[in-house]
Structure formats: C-alpha cells, structure tokens
C-alpha cells in the first residue's frame, strides 16, 4: 500500500469519534508497530470493530505483502505518524552528591527545632530554680562574693556578667522574675528570637558571675544557648508560628477551615539548611572524643573508675550513697566500660555518612542513657541535662514520620460542629486547624451546635460540652495525655458550665474577637523584604563560622592533647570570642583518672554564747568524713568549697568571712553571732577496689578568723562564756 492508500484509509474513519476512543488505549502506554498498544499485543487482543478495525486489516495485509515498503511509506507519511508517537519517558534523576551531603549534615527539621525549644524552655526553668536556693548567697552583696569584690578582683579574663549590675537581694529577685518570664516566653515560643538572645545573655551572665562554682556543665550550658541562637526555634509548635499563620490566612467558612495548605509559611519549609549543621555535629563529637582521649589513667583502663567516683560524697546523691556498697564488682566494671564505649562511639555515629538515620538514633540513645545516669547519680549542675536537650537536635524527618504513624489513630477522627455566628467558636476552629497535625478533624458549620462547639463521632453520635472538647483535644498530637482529665466528673461539669456561659454571653465578642469579614490569604512578601531576609541569613551563616573559628582556636590552646604537643597562638580576637561569655572547649571530665579522694570544707565557728557551729550547715562541725553518706550538697556549694580552698583563690576568703559573720541575719537569732573560728579542709581517700571503707582521713587548716564586732559585743555582755576553738 502506498502513501495515498494510507491517507484514504484514514479518511474513512468516523470523525465523530475521538482518536483515543477509536484506539481504546492509554496514550501513556508504549505503542508497537501497526498502531496497537504494547498491552494489546501482549494480550493478543484486536482493537474494537469499526472504521479503525478495517484500516488495521488493510495495514496488516499490506504489511504481509510488502512490509519493508509499508514501513518506508509510514516514515514518509510524516505528520500523522509523528502525532501518534509519544515522547520517551524521562529517566528519573537520582540525588546528587550535594543533595546527599546537604540532607545528611546541613539540614534540620523545623519540627525538631520546635521540639528542642520546648525542652530547652523546661530545662532553663528547672536550672533557674536550682540556682534559687543559693540565689542571694552567690550573687547578692550579702553573699560569698559581692559584686564590688568581683569587679575589683575579676576571677577570669575580662568575663562579662549582667548580674554585676544587681547588688541587693531585692534587686536580684526582680532580676529572677525577669529571667523566669524570659524562659516562659521561650518555652511557649513568643518573640522567640528575642527570647533566645536574652536567654543566652542571662545564662552566660549567671555562669560568669561566680567562676568559683563553674564546671564543665556550665560551659555546655553556654554552648547550648549559643548554637541554638542561630536556629529558628520558633517556626514550629510556637505561639509565634500560630499568630503568623492566623494572620497569613483568615478563614471564615468551613471550606476554608478544611483547607490545610495554608497552615505553614511557604517560605519556611520543613527542612532548614544551615552551615550550623556540621558545626554542631563537630561540637558534640568533640565533647565526647576529647573526654575519651584524656581518660588515660589506670582506673579507666582496668575498669574500676566508676567505683572511685561513687564514693565522692561531696558529689554523689544521697540515694546512690545508700546503695553503692551493694553494687557487685561486675556491674562496676560493666558501667566503666560502657561509659568509655559510649563516649568513643558517639563521635563515630554522629559523623558517619552511612546509615545516617539509625546512626543518629543510636547516638541519641547513648547520649540520654549516659547523661540521665550521670544526672541521677551525681550533682554535676546543668551538664547532663544540657546534653540531653542538645541530643534532641538529632531528630530527623524519618523519626517524625515514624512518630506520626505511631501516634495517629483514625478512630479519634471527629467532625467539629461550630456556630458560624460565634466569633469565639470560629477562632477556636481556626486555632484547632493549626494544631490538628494528624488531619483528624473536619469542620462543619452548624448554627445548632451546643455551646457553640460540638462534635459528631464516626458512629453519628453527637457530643457536647466537656465531652466534645475532650474528643477534640484527643485528636491533636499529645492530646490524649490531657484529654482524660476533662472527662473526670467534677472537671467535666465545670468545663461544660464554663462553655455554656461563654457561649451564652458571647464572651468572644466581648473580648474583641471578630469573625473575619472575608476569607483571604496574605500576599507573598515584597521583593525588598525577601532580599532583606536573604541578607540576614547570610549574616547568620557568617556569625556561625566566626564563632566556630573562635571555638576551634580555643580548643587548640585549652585541650591537653593539643597544647602539650603544639604551641598554637591565641589571638586577642578569638580569645575574646571564647572567654568573654565563657564559650570554652576544655573537655577532660574525670581525666586522666577519676577523683580518688574526697573532701569538704568544715568551719568550726564559735558563737557569742559559746556554741560551736558550722555556719554553712547550721549544725555542729562534723569532721567524721570516713563514715559520711553523701554531704547532700548542691553542685553550687560542692564546687564553691572545692575552689575556695585553693591557694589561687585566697583573695576571696575575706568575702567568705563576711558571709559567715552575717549568719545571725540569716537565722534571725542574735545569739548566733560568730566571734571566731577556724576553717578546715577535711579529706580522705576513697575505698580501694574490692572495699567499701574509706581511709586516710586528714585535716588541713586553711585559715582562722576573728570577728571584732562580735567579740566587742561578747565582752560588753557579762556572763557570756569566752571560748575559742583552741580551748
């Protein structure tokens, strides 16, 4: 058949039928010779009868007679044949090297950042309360180190502390309230970036105010606040994100409420890419790597290190002190090896490009097992809990997907019925839409909804009042943890009555809540604003690199394994970056050997009525260290006693004396006035391996003191015994 015959056969088709209907095929399927689809050829089926079938019969006959000529004619036919051809499917492109590198090391999930912010807020509030028991003792002018002493005799290399501006206990408690309010705002995510910066300033100021109580935990605390300051912790699970979403999209109808595409800011996708990713991984890895490298003592090598640490009574908690004698040797050996193994494995898992998701999960498990154990065993200040919070930054997209699949329950799905005339009900639905991350709530306008807000369950039953509210809360993430409380008898009745009263009195309208006049979505930001954001992002990334350079230089001049081998210069610029706010890098906890001796400060002071008392405990001085079962100190007093005994800190002992002289002001008993006394450092050696008995108790006299004012008072009041420690 020639080209003309082909064209005549095509003209015989019923033009009233579309070409796809005649072919009875999916255009996306590959076509074989003669116009049949590959699927039809494989199944041995003929195309439908009709004009197209006749044309195909002619084509097959011509092909049998002269296949080669027909093929040539088909090629020459041109337009019709070309139109029938489908373009070849594009081969999917795999991820590039940069894609893998970016997703593995440079990316944070914004949900992770929001979750970390919540835990960070709780951690900061808990740490503030930890300090509260010694708030005035440490920071006020009536404490162990008044600010005028700290300013005239700086403890560090020009460290900065905002707390130096507050002197009296009253001023400091006002500061406490301000710090507490800042932490609460950070917890809920209101003005998040500002609160992040303020929290950094407050934490570093408190930590830098009295360096006599600083330890490695304070350094980790500082670094946690520093690095998270460069992260957008308020983009998810925050009041900022909620208010921005409400402002960006104003829903009025049920269709608007059921549209979930406007919940999150399109300019802030789930993945947040920043150079801080590898920096933070290197920082965490360095903490553990250098702690392992510096543990070169025999107690770590033979597995007995934990035994000695458990008998440091100034650091161990009372519960551990009561049970440590019963710990079998094999358990001690196992825990020592576990600590070393975890600290060695964490850097490898953190930086491993292979099996990233599972490596990060293993890292989180090891970090939390390690530090929850430390935190419950010893008084180390913020060390353990700061690293637990830092570990949450390792949560990835895969982890959130698993969590969502695990927590989502389809049987909790509800239809929320709301009164479209009630401003309060509409606002509640707009907020619930943004909290419903599992997509279990569907909104439906109903002017007959009880109390303005009700639910319809999957079985068609209606719920109202507290029962409806409990169903709604149970559908949102973590809601079941609190929804049960609304179903308690007294609570249920009270909540239902409150909802009825609020709806009856139009409480939302009375508070100024208004139903949006029309449904609208805010337009995208202007180009100038977008360029401004890009400029801020660039400055943020530069700031990360600058601080990282300072951290690397500080590590090079501070870590033993480096400074003992190479002389690294310490320029003033990088020194200021690290020292000013105490962003240090000295990682040698319990190195090279663990603490093998124990000691505490004991004051034998004499009151005006002749009693011997220790003004730090309020009890008679106790020199029996051998039979002690934890001193019950907080980290603050533990480190203060250990540091004030050092010869380098003798310049701060006069302030310590003044603090002891003010003992009757703290007790409210004039007879507690201190006349004189002696200060001792009492120490012993921890039990040898295989034993539970300490030995070698020693008593070192640090200094004596006399209180002229109290002595003059004692001499002016006859009948008072004149007794001194020597007597």
Short recap of the structure:
Helices cover 53% and strands 9% of the residues.
Average pLDDT: 86
What Rg do the Cα atoms give? 37 Å
| Oligomer kind | single chain
Major beta sheet summary: 4 strands, mixed
Structural class: alpha+beta
Shape: globular
- Residue share in β-strands: 5-15%
Distance between the termini: 133 Å
Number of strands: 12
Low-pLDDT residue intervals, each spanning 5 or more residues = 1-84, 720-727
Strand order of the largest sheet: 5-4-6-7
Total count of helical runs of at least 4 residues: 34
Helical fraction equals: 40-55%
Descriptive notes:
The protein is built from 34 helices and twelve strands. By secondary structure, the chain is of the alpha+beta class. Helix 7 packs antiparallel against helix 21 and helix 11 (192-209) packs antiparallel against helix 12.
């Amino acid at each position: 058949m020639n080209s003309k015959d082909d064209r005549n056969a095509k003209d015989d088709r019923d033009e009233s039928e579309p070409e796809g209907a005649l072919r009875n095929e999916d255009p996306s399927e590959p076509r074989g010779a003669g116009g049949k689809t590959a699927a039809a050829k494989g199944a041995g089926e003929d195309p439908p009868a009709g004009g197209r079938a006749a044309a195909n019969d002619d084509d097959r006959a011509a092909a049998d007679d002269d296949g080669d000529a027909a093929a040539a004619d088909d090629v020459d036919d041109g337009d019709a044949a070309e139109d029938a051809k489908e373009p070849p499917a594009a081969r999917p492109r795999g991820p590039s090297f940069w894609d893998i590198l970016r997703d593995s090391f440079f990316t944070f999930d914004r949900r992770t950042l929001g979750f970390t912010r919540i835990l960070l807020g709780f951690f900061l509030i808990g740490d503030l309360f930890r300090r509260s028991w010694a708030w005035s003792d440490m920071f006020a002018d009536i404490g162990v180190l008044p600010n005028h002493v700290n300013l005239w005799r700086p403890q560090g290399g020009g460290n900065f502390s905002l707390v130096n501006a507050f002197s009296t206990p009253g001023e400091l408690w006002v500061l406490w309230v301000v710090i507490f309010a800042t932490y609460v705002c950070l917890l809920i995510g209101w003005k998040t970036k500002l609160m992040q910066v303020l929290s950094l300033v407050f934490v570093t100021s408190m930590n830098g105010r009295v360096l006599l109580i600083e330890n490695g935990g304070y350094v980790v605390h500082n670094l946690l606040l520093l690095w998270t300051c460069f992260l957008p912790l308020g983009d998810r699970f925050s009041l900022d994100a909620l208010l921005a979403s409400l402002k960006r999209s104003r829903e009025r109808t049920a269709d608007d409420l059921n549209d979930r595409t406007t919940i999150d800011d399109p300019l802030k996708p789930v993945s947040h890419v920043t150079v801080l990713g590898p920096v933070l991984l290197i920082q965490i890895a360095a903490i553990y790597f250098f702690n392992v490298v510096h543990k070169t003592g025999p107690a770590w090598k033979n597995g007995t290190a934990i035994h000695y640490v458990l008998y440091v009574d100034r650091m161990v908690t009372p519960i551990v002190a009561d049970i440590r004698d019963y710990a079998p040797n094999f358990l001690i050996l196992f825990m020592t090896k576990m600590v070393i193994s975890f600290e060695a494995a964490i850097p490898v898992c953190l930086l491993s490009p292979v099996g990233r998701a599972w490596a990060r999960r293993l890292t989180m498990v090891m970090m939390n097992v390690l530090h929850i154990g430390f935190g419950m065993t010893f008084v180390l200040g913020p060390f353990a809990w700061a690293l637990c919070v830092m570990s949450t930054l390792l949560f990835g997209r895969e982890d959130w997907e698993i969590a969502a699949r695990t927590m989502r329950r389809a049987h909790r799905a509800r239809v929320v019925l709301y009164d479209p005339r009630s401003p309060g009900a509409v606002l509640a639905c707009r907020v619930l839409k943004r909290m419903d991350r599992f997509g279990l709530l569907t909104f439906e306008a109903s002017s007959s909804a009880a109390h303005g807000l009700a639910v319809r369950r999957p079985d068609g039953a209606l719920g109202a009042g507290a029962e409806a509210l409990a169903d709604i809360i149970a559908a949102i993430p973590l809601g079941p943890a609190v929804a049960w409380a609304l179903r308690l008898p007294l609570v249920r009745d009270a909540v239902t009555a409150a909802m009825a009263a609020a709806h009856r009195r139009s409480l939302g309208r009375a508070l100024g809540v208004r139903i949006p006049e029309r449904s609208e979505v805010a337009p995208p930001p202007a180009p100038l604003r977008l360029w401004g954001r890009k400029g801020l992002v660039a400055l943020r990334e530069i700031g990360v690199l600058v601080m990282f350079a300072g951290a690397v230089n500080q590590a090079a001049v501070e870590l033993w394994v480096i400074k003992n081998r190479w002389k690294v210069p310490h320029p003033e610029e990088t020194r200021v970056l690290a020292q000013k706010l105490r962003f240090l890098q000295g990682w040698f906890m319990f190195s090279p050997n663990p603490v093998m001796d124990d000691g505490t400060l004991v004051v034998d002071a004499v009151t005006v009525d002749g009693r011997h008392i220790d003004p730090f405990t309020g009890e008679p001085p106790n020199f029996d260290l051998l039979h002690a079962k934890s001193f019950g100190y907080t980290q603050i007093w533990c480190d203060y006693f250990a540091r004030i005994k050092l010869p380098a800190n003798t310049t701060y002992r006069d302030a310590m004396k003044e603090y002891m002289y003010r003992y009757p002001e703290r007790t409210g008993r004039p007879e507690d006035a201190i006349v004189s006394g002696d200060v001792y450092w009492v120490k012993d050696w921890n039990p040898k391996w295989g034993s539970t008995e300490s030995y070698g108790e020693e008593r070192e006299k640090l200094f004596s003191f006399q209180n002229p004012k109290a002595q003059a008072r004692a001499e002016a009041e006859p009948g008072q015994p004149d007794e001194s420690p020597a007597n």
